[in-house]
Amino acid sequence: MRKLHQVAMACAISAIMLSGTALAQNAAPKKEETGKDIAFNRTKGNCLACHGMPTVPDAESTGLYGPPLIAMSARFPDKAKLRAQIWDATAFNPASSMIPFGKHGVLTEEEIDKVTDFVYGL
Fold it and tell me: DSSP class of residue 74?
């Protein structure tokens, strides 16, 4: 009886492992996040919590606390300064309430680059 139990357990474990492998192979590849995805994501950039984005039609429930994100290339002719602002706004204004996304590790370097590109295009 013990041998039968061991064989049954081995079969069950094998079936679970094989089904997990099949699911992983059949799963769609993960879509790469865009700057917009990150900016709109409430667990990442969450720019909409504070900033309005009047030029983005699907930006719903935008905030009114921060300045609206419009004409950003005119406001920040040097894209590197915009990136630095997203990285740590307190470096330029110690009283800023904007989260220092890079300094505190909220976003990775790559994510900050993507958000910068997205916002710069607004």
Answer: H
Q: Is residue 7 located within the same domain as residue 36? A: no
> Is 89 in the same domain as 108?
yes
Tell me the DSSP string of the chain.
-HHHHHHHHHHHHHHHHHHHHHHHHHSPPPPPPPHHHHHH-TTTT-GGGT---TT-TT--S--SSSPP--SHHHH-SSHHHHHHHHH-GGGT-TT--S--TTTTTSS-HHHHHHHHHHHHT-
pTM, rounded to two decimals: 0.71
Three-point CA angle 51, 54, 56, nearest 5°? 100
Q: What residues make up the domain containing 25?
A: 1-30
pLDDT of residue 7: 46
CA distances from 89 to 83, 84, 104, 117, 119 (A): 10, 7, 12, 17, 15
φ, ψ at 106 (rounded to 5°) = -70, -40
